[in-house]
Amino acid sequence: MSEIKPELKDSDAKHCQVTWEKLYVCYAIGEASTANIEKLCRNLDMFARQQRGIAFVLATRDTTRPPSEESRRLVRQVFTRNRDNIACVAICVEAVGFSSAIIRAVTSALFVLSQPGLKVRFFSSMNESVPWVAESVGMATQDVRSVYYYCREIVGQ
Questions:
Q1: By the 8 A CB rule, do 18 and 151 touch?
Q2: Which of 78, 81, 146, 154 is within CB 3.0–4.6 Å of 4 for a Cys-Cys bond?
Q3: 1: pLDDT confidence band, cut at 50, 70 and 90?
Q4: What are the structural domains of the chain?
């Protein structure tokens, strides 16, 4: 196993963005402001332009409200520009019931419907996504799991 030293791109009390090798993780346990989304778009755009075959992981909970229409438009633009450099998108919604369905519907519209051909899967937890993400970008499962734990430590979860 390699030594994991993720790069922290952005963080606050309820969000963090972290990269490691071909992995970009956005972990959010609260509503993302327009400023959070703008930072995500800027950082992801730079990361995806630097290398091909990246994985984007969005991990969130049922306490997270969907972003504004303007924020969704910005996210769609970044994924459209970088579609050829993105190997996979893992959406991890750690929620149950109706709130989970709402979050999945919004993210489905963002990633599946608006980005044909983009390899997207939904998971009920970050841990559930580990094997698929690792295989999609050729990383060790333990490395992916370590980056996820790092994100949880930053946000205090």
A1: yes
A2: 146
A3: very low
A4: 7-155 (3.30.750.24)
88-140 pLDDT, tens digit per residue, is: 999 888 766 666 666 666 666 655 555 667 888 888 889 999 999 999 999 99
Say if residues 82 and 45 touch (Cβ distance below 8 Å). Answer: yes
Per-residue pLDDT averaged across 6-18, rounded?
92
Range 91-111 burial, b when 16+ CB lie within 10 A, else e: bbbbbeeeebebbbebbeebb
Tokens at 19, concatenated: 């990269």
Put simply, whether the predicted model's pTM sits higher than 0.85 gets the answer: yes
